[in-house]
Specification:
Length: about 140
């Protein structure tokens, strides 16, 4: 299962991140795949500091990330926490050529930040069956 999950994450063209709004409702957003992954437990995304999602994560760091392959109907949902990182080392870590299309002031743009998701557990779906797992077990 571990290798299947890693392959699914690596091949996903879109990631879905979930946050909790100030009324306690879940919110989902499609994102580009993570820029960096550490095992199955830590993921780094780019986003705008001024975004609604950043405000929600600062207010409530509970989060989820979902990866799927719609062709094979396999998916994995990871639950954990999302941190908003604005330090230069984190920003430089995942900066790519062409990011100035989104952040015109470059890697030091105050409207550019990093979301670091740390998973605690997950649920994998494949072949009409779901399995829960602890991320620390499958790292």
């Amino acid at each position: 299962m571990e290798q299947t999950i890693e392959d699914l994450i690596d091949q996903a063209e879109v990631s879905f991140i979930g946050s909790v709004d100030d009324e306690g409702f879940p919110n989902m957003k499609a994102m580009l795949p993570p820029r960096r992954r550490e095992g199955q437990g830590v993921f780094y995304f780019t986003t705008n500091t001024s975004s609604m999602r950043v405000r929600q994560y600062r207010d409530n760091p509970r989060a989820c990330v979902y990866f799927c392959n719609p062709r094979t109907f396999k998916g994995v949902m990871l639950r954990g926490t999302m941190e908003v990182l604005e330090d230069q080392a984190s920003k430089a870590l995942i900066w790519r050529e062409g990011d100035t299309d989104y952040y015109s002031l470059g890697v030091t743009d105050p409207d550019y930040c990093v979301l670091r998701f740390t998973a605690e557990n997950g649920r994998f779906y494949s072949h009409f069956h779901s399995d829960d797992f602890d991320v620390s077990v499958v790292r």
